Amino acid sequence: MSGSVRTLSQKVWDSHLVREEAGAPSLLYIDLHLVHEVTSPQAFSGLRARGLKVRRPDLTVATTDHSIPTTDRSLPILDPIAANQVAQLDKNCKEFGIPHYGVHSEHQGIVHVIGPELGFTQPGMTVVCGDSHTATHGAFGALAFGIGTSEVENVLATQCLLQRPSQTFKVHVDGTLRPGITAKDIILAFCAKVGIGGGTGTVLEYTGAAIRALDMEGRMTVCNMSIEAGARAGMIAPDDTTFQYLHGRPFSPKGADWDAAVARWKRLPTDDGARFDREVSIDGDSLEPMITWGTNPGMGVSISGAVPEPSSISDPLERDAVAKALSYMGLEAGKPILGRPVNVVFIGSCTNSRITDLRAAAAVLKGRKVNPNVRVMVVPGSMEVKRQAIAEGLPELFREAGCDYREPGCSMCIAMNGDQLQPGEYSVSTSNRNFEGRQGKGGRTFLASPLTAAAAALTGVVTDVRTIL
To answer: Are 167-239+266-286 and 292-467 the same fold in CATH?
Structure first.
């Protein structure tokens, strides 16, 4: 990939190549390996069976997030499978010398929330985790992607990974987002534009004025859902916003090391004249709040739009997929999505559980009461987010509005520990996936931003938040 002009992803790839052979996968060095309790047990068992140690425990970070209940931490974990996974990760980390932010750690949280907030995630890194939403860390200009359990074992043992290079895909979002439009709407609009396979085999690089204007938490939301368009990873070039976010964080470089790091990071952005394999543009000025109507994240529409008509779709496979999704969701073709009653609102997940997400929802809910027919769950992404929220009085605000404010974890995103929909229930969710049964067997999920979710909580129906703002 070396050449005079290169993209951001090509620069990171080139600087981590250990070995390259024609026709074979390349050996790539990994800077940061994030581990959680769901995809790691078999990997650690594999190490034991082969008599291997963890190659670089200092470059490995573990947290408990998927299986941990969002109820009071002093209570026992009732689900035996979840309890075993949580206990096993603690045991594995102690045995192999890996730092672990477990159940009672002051830094426990969702893996893709605590990595950045502790300063582990930095520009120019390669970052992997046995979790598909590892692309989140690409917001910092890191090449970050999810890996499978056997690959988790390989990285633990060698700190390297066999990979093939991806194509490059530029997603240019220009203009200025209007009030009520957020980072979540950008990425849902992109997924709706290209579909769930539109980014297959590529690393997305998000550029343009609307992307540059986002804070780091908004950028993480955008990169988080790159996988939902089929991409390997999503990246945003580091800039002053990135550096300000990272400065002073516990594991960020300090002193002269910081100055050297920033100088290095400033060389990462894509060179002028570098060519991308694919490009697409989105007009940020014309974006509306987005919401999904179907059973994958590409089945989305602007809040004022209508559910599609299968009969208007020429491709037979796509037509069947739309008809099947409408049947599962119990929606009528060609009808508006606005006004659709909802049973549950979930504000959380690695996509939208950071402090800015909680602030956005709180601003809509402040001084108001949620609809009595709607259960509203607010789940912070980490203990640090929880502490920030307490300092700003957000838990009291949510509770006064009638929300169920809980402890940090993945929660209803993956329907764990009882945080789930009942068959036939509708949810407006700030999470990242709306697959059949994702939030509970027979549950039906509309993906949306924290603003749109909060609006639905107040009215009990799918609502354009701009009518409330």
So the answer is: no
Report, as an integer, the average pLDDT of 247-261: 98
CA distance 414 to 101: 20
The token pair that represents 76 in the structure block: 């026992």
Distance in angstroms (rounded) separating the CA atoms of residues 38 and 54: 18
Query: For position 2, what pLDDT does the model report?
Result: 47
User: Within its chain, how far is the Cα of 398 from the centroid?
Assistant: 23
**Res. 4 pLDDT band, cuts 50 70 90:** confident
Which of 329, 353, 349 lies closest to 415 in space, CA to CA?
Answer: 349
Per the DSSP assignment, residues forming a β-bridge with 189 are none
Q: Tell me the angle at which helices 80-96 and 41-50 cross, rounded to the nearest 10 degrees.
A: 40
Instruction: Look at the pTM and tell me if it is higher than 0.90.
Output: yes
Average pLDDT over all residues of the chain: 97
Q: Once rounded to an integer, what is the mean pLDDT over residues 367-378? A: 98
Identify the architecture of domain 167-239+266-286 in CATH.
Answer: 3-Layer(aba) Sandwich (3.40)
Task: Kindly report the length of the chain.
Answer: 469
Task: Dihedral sign for Cα 131, 135, 141, 142, please.
Answer: positive
The CATH homologous superfamily of the domain defined by 292-467: Aconitase, domain 3 (3.30.499.10)
User: Which residue blocks in 266-380 are alpha helix, DSSP H?
Assistant: 316-329, 355-365
Domain-by-domain residue ranges, the chain? 9-163, 167-239+266-286, 292-467
Token output for 131: 């979790």
SS3 356: helix
**What are the two backbone dihedrals, phi and then psi, of residue 396, each rounded to the nearest 5 degrees?**
-65, -40
